[in-house]
Amino acid sequence: MDEPPWLLWARELQAMAQTGLTFAKDPYDLERYRRLREIALAMLAQGSDSRIEPIRDLFEQELGYPTPKVDVRGAVIVEQRILMVREISDGGWTLPGGWADVNQSARECVEREIREESGFEARAFKLAAVYDYQRQRHRRAHPYSIYKMFFLCELMGGAARASMETSEVGFFALDALPPLSTGRATEAQIARMFEHWRDPSMRTEFD
């Protein structure tokens, strides 16, 4: 799904406002950037049919120069089946993963997410892809700019276990995927992980 123009404009205006509020010194400039942020928030609220207060709270936590957020996903494939978890938030299935945490490497983050969301221990051995959320045609619009890092991972142990964020854990063949949480991973991305698994010589790909 192509993102609507209003979302692209609002996201860019918010980034401009955040940059200005970080570096500007003149009080009149600061006031203009605050107003610019309010316009961006109003666009996001109206475009998503949401209340403006939660959106304001979300973006007021963002400080410093604005950069894309980082999401990590782990592809654990065993005997032609891929590990997936069912998200409590929307009931869809996806590859284990989530936002990268500070003070952890990307590898540490994806291995931790797999352990926490599925109960399995895994070792990341290849960065297969770095995708831009906007360019990957996800069906869910998002207020942030996001880089999604997909890792191939080797199963090391553990056992299936649900978590606070996931209700079920399972392994699925590519031709028998369950209903997906497409804001987190798409069928095309999952299929691409199978291709990387079958051909380890494939280079890391990126948008």
Summarize this structure briefly.
The protein is an alpha+beta fold.
What can you see in these coordinates?
The protein folds into two domains: 5-60; 69-206, Nucleoside Triphosphate Pyrophosphohydrolase, CATH 3.90.79. Strands 1, 2, 3, 4, 5, 6, 7 and 8 form an eight-stranded mixed β-sheet that branches. The model has no long low-confidence stretch (mean pLDDT 91). The relative contact order is 0.17. By secondary structure, it is α+β, with helices and mostly antiparallel strands. The two termini are 16 Å apart. The chain is built from five helices and eight strands. The protein has helices at residues 5-23, 27-48, 52-60, 106-118, 187-198; strands at 69-78, 81-87, 93-94, 97-99, 120-132, 146-158, 166-173, 205-206. The radius of gyration is 19 Å and the shape is elongated. α1 runs antiparallel to α2.
Topology:
Blueprint: H1 5-23, H2 27-48, H3 52-60, E1 69-78, E2 81-87, E3 93-94, E4 97-99, H4 106-118, E5 120-132, E6 146-158, E7 166-173, H5 187-198, E8 205-206
Parallel strand pairs: 1-6, 5-8
Antiparallel strand pairs: 1-2, 1-4, 2-3, 2-7, 5-6
Keywords for this entry:
alpha+beta, 207 residues, Nucleoside Triphosphate Pyrophosphohydrolase, elongated, 5 helices, 2 domains, 8 strands, eight-stranded mixed beta sheet
